[in-house]
Design a protein that fits this description.
The protein is α/β, with parallel strands linked by helices. It is built from 7 helices and 5 strands; from the N terminus they run E-H-E-H-H-E-H-H-E-H-E-H. It has a 5-stranded parallel beta sheet with strand order 2-3-1-4-5, sandwiched between helices. Strand 4, helix 6 and strand 5 form a beta-alpha-beta unit. The termini are far apart.
Length: 184
């Protein structure tokens, strides 16, 4: 079985946009990359699972967890060579870890090992104050607050630095920029 690659070294700050589905992670990652004129890493699971859904009608199986983690890490490793002072990651393998627990009550050992070896400067935990938007993969519109606390618990469990980002539209971007500027 293929292993999750180690993170490539990076001179800047890795910032993860993290949290439940439909909280604006992808939009904010793109906005932040534009604001700071740097790279953002897209969520690998989105395309991977959409392709699977389009072919099989299934959303996700336990055996998808490691390929998702590997794909996310490979995408991040490709982006570090092009990033400037910041790299904005639209999720990371901690997100995969949490979803593995939520859906399957188990986490592959390889994912747990890679998670402990991962280093990010800060997590932006996205609040669930944004409207939920349906799509083929999203399935928990009524569990968002509970999921938020599950995601936050994982940050606490691994003692990771984070800030909750709330607000709609430009206010959400402003709140994230304020937090990031205070990290310097």
């Amino acid at each position: 079985m293929e292993k999750i690659p180690e993170q490539k070294p990076y001179h800047g700050r890795r910032i993860v946009l993290y949290g439940p589905e439909s909280t604006g992670k992808s939009t904010l990652a793109q906005q932040l990359a534009g604001h700071y004129k740097t790279e953002q890493v897209s969520e690998f699971a989105r395309d991977f699972l959409q392709d699977k859904f389009d072919v099989t009608g299934a959303i996700c199986d336990y055996q998808d967890i490691l390929p998702i983690a590997i794909g996310q890490r490979l995408a991040e490793n490709r982006a570090v060579s092009k990033a400037s002072d910041y790299l904005f990651c639209d999720t990371d393998i901690l997100e995969t870890y949490v979803y593995s627990l939520i859906y399957f009550k188990s986490v592959p050992a390889e994912l747990s090992i890679a998670l402990k070896q991962s280093r990010y400067h800060h997590y932006l935990l996205m609040d669930v104050d944004t409207p939920w938007t349906a799509d083929d993969l999203r399935d928990k519109p009524n569990d968002r607050k509970e999921l938020f606390y599950t995601f936050e618990s994982a940050l606490k469990k691994f003692d990771l630095p984070y800030t909750i980002i709330s607000g709609l539209g430009d206010q959400r971007l402003h709140n994230a920029v304020t937090v990031i500027n205070q990290l310097v």
